[in-house]
Amino acid sequence: MRGQNAGYIAGIFEHPTRKADGKSLALLHAEVAKGAIEDAGLSKDDVDGYFCAGDVAGWDARGAGPFSIIDYLGLKLRHLDSTESWGSSYLVHVAHAAEAIAAGKCRIALINLAGRPRADGFNTGTSVATEGLSAAEAQFELPYGPTVVNTYAMCAMRHMHEFGTTSEQLAWIKVAASHHAQHNPHAMLRDVVTVEDVVSSPIIADPLHRLDCCVISDGGGALIVTGPEIAKSLKHPPVRVIGAGYAPKHQMGGRIDLTYSGARWSGPRAFAEAEITPRDIQYASIYDSFTITVLITLEDLGFCAKGKGGAFVADGNLISGLGRLPFNTDGGGLCNNHPSNRGGMTKIIEAVRQLRGIAHPKVQVANCGLALVHGTGGALGTRHGSATLILERE
Amino acid sequence: MAKDRAIIPPLPFPETTPYWEAAANGKLLIKQCSACGASHFYPRVHCPFCFSDKTQWCEAAGRGTIYAFSVTRRAETPYAIAYVTLREGPTMLTNIVDCGLDSIRIGQEVRVVFKPAENGQLVPMFTPV
């Protein structure tokens, strides 16, 4: 991608709400879209490409969702992309927007996420799936009561078995997130927690405790992606997409290995495109649906060897100003928010803040020039889409 | 011993009815490919490895080892979800039943048992040997 397909993230907006009782999903979309367009210094009529995922108008809208929202927003488009990859969709959208812009399909792309699972009272983590009942795997899975938490929990259990990873090591990931969240006035959970707090919180599904799990929140976010000429004419420091990688992982016909994720493939693709290595990364936004998601992702991306993630994350190594790899400085999904049960969007936004130098001063990485964003969309223990972006401040 | 949990009935496809009919008779079937020899799970018509449609139903021995598990504590009736690696090779999602939930371990040997879903369809699960 260096030298070609140059896409720039020129506008960002994160919705401040965490419980949207008084607002519809469509209104949240309008608010985040307006926020990102204004952040970029553009107007709605400048937008000619729109990117959203399958849940954009609520799951019951299905394929009609993208059209419902572009109608509601009054967009005039020449490019529409509703690639669905669960929580990593928005990273894929950034990559696709850069490609579409380079190919001349659009000039200014708007990427949207919004959701209100908290206002709707949805028990994200502990409900047995109620969608996808007609999928091929459903008859061989749903009778066994798979939930979001227990399928991720099996990955943690296996990782502990093979590599000796401990609950205390996993807890350090939450501890680091909480150190960052204390400085974020919008974060749902702002209290700094200790390893002891995490491991003494109730078990949801062995070996994951309540504090190993991300929050359920409402809200959303939006991005503007454009090409080099427009990005450099706008007010913010240009943040360029220099690498992108994607890989789905599934059950492989029963040849199951829960110790790694699709990041094993998406990461090297992104690093190769960017022509850098993990050692060059100054800040990382890692989708943190659960603590185990972060640990496995960091190994797969090459920040440490497979099986050494526990030692890598321990002792504050992910805390900005203390450790080697500052991560999720907004508090991440573990403490800040998880709108629409999809963490990819807010991961991108915090990475852009770091590269612009506008993260909270207590967590801002000095001279942050290179950042990585990783999304794990879906379920680590069954099927998921892994997406990696590498971003550079020009 | 774990209490019984309400089991969501499976919704068979036309081409997977042999699997569920066998389960109703206390047999666990898997698919094996005549072209490449590989066994797979969950069962399809087309081999997910070589994509041949020459796959055949085979009765599994019903023995395996626990690859991974998790006890869901935050549930009306706590239960153990697991991946069990069958003696024939493939690993399948299942439950570990008829045992103390705190006694389950990775690597434990298990054998198949069948438990009724809410509609009476028997569903393969596993219990420690």
Key structural traits:
heterodimer; A: 394 residues; alpha/beta; Peroxisomal Thiolase, Chain A, domain 1; 9-stranded mixed β-sheet; two-stranded antiparallel sheet; 11 strands; B: 129 residues; mainly beta; OB fold (Dihydrolipoamide Acetyltransferase, E2P); 3-stranded antiparallel β-sheet
Short structural summary:
The complex is a heterodimer of chains A (394) and B (129). Chain A has 394 residues and is of the alpha/beta class.
How many runs of DSSP E, i.e. beta strands of chain A?
11
CATH class categorisation of chain A: Alpha Beta
* Greatest chain-chain contact: A-B, 42 and 46 residues
Query: Helix/strand/pairing class of chain B, anyone?
Result: mainly beta
Number of helices of chain A: 13
What is the averaged pLDDT score of chain A? 96
Per the CATH scheme, the topology name of chain A is: Peroxisomal Thiolase, Chain A, domain 1
Estimate nothing, just give the exact number of structural domains of chain A. 1
What's the order of the H and E elements of chain B? HEEEEEEEE
Please explain how this structure is put together.
The complex is a heterodimer of chains A (394) and B (129). In chain A, helix 6 crosses helix 10 and helix 9 crosses helix 10 (291-301). With 394 residues, chain A is of the alpha/beta class. Chain A is built from 13 helices and 11 strands. Chain A has one domain: Peroxisomal Thiolase, Chain A, domain 1, CATH 3.40.47. In chain A, strands 3-2-4-7-1-8-11-10-9 form a 9-stranded mixed sheet, sandwiched between helices. In chain A, strands 5-6 form a two-stranded antiparallel sheet. By secondary structure, chain B is mainly beta. Chain B has a single domain, classed as OB fold (Dihydrolipoamide Acetyltransferase, E2P), CATH 2.40.50. Chain B contains 1 helix and 8 strands. A 5-stranded antiparallel sheet of chain B has the order 6-5-4-7-8. A 3-stranded antiparallel sheet of chain B has the order 2-1-3. Chain B starts with 16 loop residues before the first helix and ends with a strand. The model of chain B has no long low-confidence stretch (mean pLDDT 96). At the A-B interface, helix 4, helix 5 and strand 5 of A face strand 2, strand 4, strand 5 and strand 6 of B.
